[in-house]
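# step 3/5: fold
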Amino acid sequence: MNNVDEKKKKLLEKIGEKERSLNNGMLSAVSSLDVVFLLDTTGSMEPYIHEVQRNIVRVIDEVFNASPKVRMGFVAYKDHGDEGEDEFYLTKVLPLVSDRQKITRFVQSPDLYIGEGGTGPEAVECALHEAVNLAWNNTSPRAVVVIGDKPPHGVIDSFRACPKQREYTVEVEALKKKGTKIYSILCNNISETEGNFRWMSQQTGGRFFYLKEISDLAEILIGICLKETGRLPYYERKLLEQGAMSPARKTLLLELH
């Protein structure tokens, strides 16, 4: 047996141990989940938005096939100040649903157009507010996944910069009280955004990810969902058995353990 085969065998054995633990009830294989994706749709996020749109069907299939009791919601957000545009939206919301076609249509809709964006904060606080007020299932694990490159108002400017008088700290606390974890994915290297995204995740028991390669985005979204449903070991085994566990995928998935 060569070195590569030996490593694969050991990894499969380790994953097998996790699967046995799940099956024996030592860990909670919950399979259900309410997850809401908060997606910055301003101009600087254009390649990341397209990456989500290109891969949404794969994300849905991988998650729902492993965990049929999942519901997904989306909040697309921009920033204040563009109200003069005919098709302006500050936030555009898809409620939590389990209908694959509804999710796909929302994400791939031309209505989810990309705004110009600016160099300052975005309306993350308003997107969080929308997430707080969705109809969450009280018996399922709950997660919010923030995908963006700018912090909310109140980090590098004043809370008063939000005309709706919303504060991200208040919204994060409200999600925390609901038992909702915040997973944050940073799409640039702005230090103020990183500090804020890390804080939101730490406050709620979630995880922070710095997106090094845009092609990793779909894998992170799948991994987060399957970690929360207890199905991550099964997904890892599937990748290994199909010969699809690349070093990059392995590194990403290890971050979720």
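# step 4/5: annotate
Residues 129 and 179 are 15 Å apart (CA to CA).
# step 5/5: archive (pending)
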